[in-house]
Amino acid sequence: MSTFSGVGTALSSLIAQRQALDVSAQNIANANTVGYTRQRISLTSVPAQSVPSMFATSDGVGQGTRSAGVARLGDVFLDAKVRAASGNAAFLAARAEAHSTLERSLGEPAATGLSGLLSDVWAGWADVANGSDREAARAVLLERSNAVATGLHTLYADARTQWQQARTTTVALVDRVNTAAASVADLNEKILAIENSGGVAHELADQRDLLVTELSSLVGATARVRQDGQVDVLVGGSSLVTGDDASELAVSGATSFAQATAGEAVGVVWARLPDRPAGIDGGRVAGLLSVLAPAGDGGLLTGAAARYDEIATELAAQVNDVHATGVTPTGDPGGAFFTFTAGQPAALGLTVALTGADQVAAGAPGQGEYDGSVAAQLAALGTAAEGPDARWRAVVTDLGVQTASAASRSKVAGTMLTATQDQQLANASVDIDEETVNMLAYQRAYEGAARVLTAIDEMLDTLINRTGVVGR
């Protein structure tokens, strides 16, 4: 071993400890960076020469230390758990939000809700029954009946608006999926190039993992790490990202609420193969697709619209059947009280057929102008077991139960997501105290190596400049 070998040993330590300090500094600098995964340098000793060179000897002592690489302290299993929990939580959150929005649109319980409007109508019929000769009571009844029709119009329009907003959101989210997938493919290419050249691309890997997690929350994507370090992203069992190549998704199917209520579904397909569904089964997009589905497939909004139509149809049928048995104050037979606009859904096309208060048929034929027996029968529909009120209460109750269930499931899924994220952060996030201790250790090692270098320098100075001059 050369006399100068100690200089190289001390130098190797200086270089290695400086690199370790750089890694700790990077960790501390990114302690609050979202998605950053802490890094740790691995130091290894340099062994002694196994085949000494000519005129050199070896005492078996190693030749210092060196960096064996910088490890990224992530956990692929925890990452996979977070992504699975994220997709499930986003799916249930989308459904819970849709249920909550629809429930608020009902406006129940409130005087301005449909139940309150129906109660006013039955009270109006009772007033007519008690004073069938009063034109004012009949006029009030017509206004209240128009308010019920308007209320059904509003409910249907709200469901249609919510459907359109959900579809627009779905399109925007699918566009975001395509952008994120392209970014993952681009990062795959960059990371592979950097690592093939001997570099480290941990920060780019952090960005890539954030994008993959975002894709999981959007479309329930899963990730598969390849041997070369690239990440493939799968959606519904098919590849969204393969190495540096990304496929695109597109929204297909119904573009209007009328098409959806007619049975046409909204779906997500592969842009290159429009006839092939993407098979999305998780994430926010899947949750929105379930909300946008036709009524026959369990669609929330189309199902609500169908029930509004049933309420309108039943209301018109029951009122018209009884009203047709009565006569007007002038003795004319009572016709249809409600009618529908052709080409419109029942709830949206319901209108009052009568144009004047004198057309209200309150009494039975041959019972005189003061008879209000037919109006009394109509007022009794408010308490009928199969009346419009009972049917509407069933709709409100059913939606309330569904909303509570959806909110509960979403809350549980959110709690699970938080727990898995906490596990991931505990493993991958930066601990300032730990990094401070490491920095002190690296600092002391650097100072020790510098002191060794100083000692060797003094030894060499004595050997070169003072040997042989003793006594002079």
Automatic annotation (TrEMBL):
UniProt organism field: Cellulomonas wangsupingiae
Domain (Flagellar hook-associated protein FlgK helical): residue spans on this chain: 100-338
UniProt similarity note: Belongs to the flagella basal body rod proteins family.
Annotated InterPro entries: Flag_bb_rod_N (IPR001444), Flg_bb/hook_C_dom (IPR010930), FlgK (IPR002371), FlgK_helical (IPR053927)
Superkingdom of the source species: Bacteria
Protein name, entry field: Flagellar hook-associated protein 1
Flagellar basal body rod protein N-terminal domain span: 9-37
Subcellular location: Bacterial flagellum; Secreted
One matching Pfam family: Flg_bb_rod
Gene: flgK
Alphabetical UniProt keywords: Bacterial flagellum, Cell projection, Cilium, Flagellum, Secreted
